Model the fold of this input.
Amino acid sequence: MRRSIETLIEAWATAPVNRPLLLRGARRVGKTYVIEEVGKRIAGDGFVKLDFQTDLELISPLFDGPTDDVDAIMRRVSEYKRTKLDKATAFVLFDEIQLCERALNSLRFFSGSGWRVAATGSQLGVATRKRDLPFPSGVQQETLHPLTFEEFLWALGEEEMAEAIRNHVRTLEPYPAHNHASELFRLYQVVGGMPAAVAAYIETRNLDEVRVQQREIDETYTADMTDPENGISGLAARKVWRSIPSQLLRSSTKKFKYAQVERGGRRAKLMEPLDWLAGAGMVSINQLTECVEAPLVPYEEEEGSYFKVYLADTGLMFYKLAVNPRLWLEAEMSSTLPISSDFRGALAENAVMQALMSNDLRTFYWTPPASWGGMGELDFLLQDDCMRIIPIEVKSARNVRAKTLSTFMEKSHAPYAVVLSDRDFGRVLGEAGVEIHQIPLYAAYCIGDSCVRVG
Done:
């Protein structure tokens, strides 16, 4: 499966060797696969992988000597793999490096050494809390997320559609294949972006096979969070994980409520498990702000901050809520089938958050300050490279009226607003006299380059 991050990895691999590459991301997002693909393409027989997950006991002793003597480490790696490693041509992958603390620490000494070393790490945000050695510096860190809709289109052989969508985001002209793109996006929401689920659909075109993969991923995540070595309450983490989809279904504010995790739930008990899930890449957190100008900062009170929590993948959302994917796809063609509007709204928001996270954007949601006497929420605020604030409103249907957006535009100096909905591309003048870019939900993956970043 083609991934957009391959371009970045190839650029790193073909540039003069300077820093090692550390690819982070949640379990099962395809980190190993993408580096293997690039490594074999770039280095051929010079590509070597150390798999700490399967061969930890055999590999760990390779790092028992001084971790700053990287040439000695590579000699031992060469002997272990029974192959000659040439510093000028070798491409070495340390897979799931978080399982060996000394190996992780050694990465900083590979910086400037001339060795081309890449590493993958799952749960790096949580697996290194009890470290005795410092987290490595001098490392190029990148994050891999589930497949975007663009990558899903590539997997389906729809490269021309993916490029056309990017072009229409720039021009905002109506897209002749809008209806077909919308159908494929609904399919993407069902399948999600986890590579195993996408591969199952591509190979079989069977949504039951997709559900099998989603169940296995959910079980893997649950096993990870309940591992006693994690140092958190596995029971509490499981309750938080289970509550997230239902919290998104509330028709009122979708602000995360600890009391909805369990009766009498408190921040002191549940904050750490939630932080663990976020650090492991299983969920994304969108904090509240009351700012209307840059820089955006979270709104906090004495009892804590306000935020929303989204699942990292919409396919897992379907699985965890036991929504029949075929019924959902049929429901989009018929208003008579029983799919709630709350689910549609939650799914749309989660899909947009997933797209924004894939572009490594920092997001906020906004509510009018109490002094304004206003109500409502604005789904997302982004801050661009020119310190401008770009508001984004998400609509799960064709109705794009947004009172809170109008309130924000009256008070802010935003150059334009973005409304994501089922509608085709377009440009209209809002109530506050500010231009509104109407963009289909399926084009959310373009936000972050064409829509927001400048330069």
Q: What stands out?
A: The CA atoms of residues 18 and 112 lie 5 Å apart. The first helix runs from residue 5 to 14. The chain has a mean pLDDT of 90.
